[in-house]
Specification:
seven-stranded parallel beta sheet, alpha/beta, 53% helix, globular, 7 strands, Rossmann fold, 287 residues
Length: 287
């Protein structure tokens, strides 16, 4: 029996509704499905595979991880903030709030040297190791501001590639502008992000930082201490800072780590010194 015009319209309406129904979406296009709690294993796999595939396609063979505070400012920015704080204080010299701001601005100027060291180190490594299409010792950072920006910026200065592993946070976060676009990744899970930091790592360089830096540093130390990861040079930049913040010898004296565990890291201050320690370690490892 031939359908009436009304029946044909109804048929078309029903068919369109089916095509647009959530159940009909291709599974990997169904964001509601992927966001479900029970799909977490799939999301974890995707976060593992996507950066792995991209790095392989870009020929990234080995990396150097650069950690440090997101709050560390470039020297010129830190000095401008100090000048503004001094000017504000000059108008109200007894204001306790303005005094505190000046003290903090002075500390930022002091810390800004690490921004320059990280930038110079990355420039040195990238210009040395990324030649003739080779991608060895590519700098990888958390992709954010501060020391992370300095690391990516140094590679950018010399036309080198660098990697940024950003992460979704409750507050506003964006990648710094110096990460190579094809190597700029965003993560939901800290655990998978940390895996990518170490999967190709030939060294870890830790600049002064806060909770995040300490978390990443101690996780790496633990993985190497327990033989879950192969040994790599761990360079702590700024011995005065690190000895003030973490009393490593006290841990050994208390018997909670072995005295040999103090040999898992070294201190350094300048870009050339950091690079020399990394090269010496890896040449020794090959011997």
């Amino acid at each position: 029996m031939k359908m009436s015009e009304e029946e044909m319209k109804e048929r078309a309406r029903l068919q369109e509704a089916l095509v647009n129904a959530p159940a009909y979406r291709l599974a990997y296009h169904d964001q509601d499905l992927l966001d479900r709690a029970d799909m977490r294993p799939v999301r974890l796999q995707l976060e593992l595979f996507k950066p792995e595939i991209a790095q392989a396609e870009e020929g990234i063979h080995s990396t150097i991880v650069v950690f440090g505070s997101a709050r560390t400012l470039p020297p010129d920015v830190a000095e401008a903030e100090l000048a503004a704080a001094e000017e504000a204080l000059s108008g109200s010299p007894e204001d306790p709030g303005l005094k505190a701001k000046k003290i903090l601005a002075e500390k930022k100027v002091e810390q800004s040297r690490y921004y320059q060291v990280a930038r110079d180190f990355s420039r040195l490594v990238s210009s040395t190791c990324q030649e003739n299409g080779e991608c060895e010792y590519v700098v990888v950072t958390g992709g954010g501001p501060g020391i992370m920006e300095a690391g990516n910026r140094g590679a950018h200065d010399v036309g080198g590639k660098s990697i940024g592993l950003n992460i979704v946070l409750p507050f506003e976060q964006a990648p710094n502008p110096y990460v190579s676009p094809e190597l700029c990744f965003n993560f939901r899970y800290f655990a998978i992000r940390k895996m990518h930091f170490l999967m190709r790592a030939k060294a870890l360089v830790a600049f002064p930082g806060g909770y995040g830096t300490l978390d990443e540093l101690f996780e790496t130390l633990t993985l190497i201490q327990t033989y879950k990861s192969p040994p790599v040079p761990i360079i702590l930049v700024g011995q005065t800072f690190w000895e003030r913040v973490v009393n490593f010898p006290a841990l050994a004296e208390e018997g909670v780590i072995s005295p040999d565990d103090l040999n898992l890291f070294e201190y350094a201050e300048e870009p050339e010194e950091i690079w020399a320690k990394i090269r010496e370690f890896n040449q020794t490892a090959k011997a």
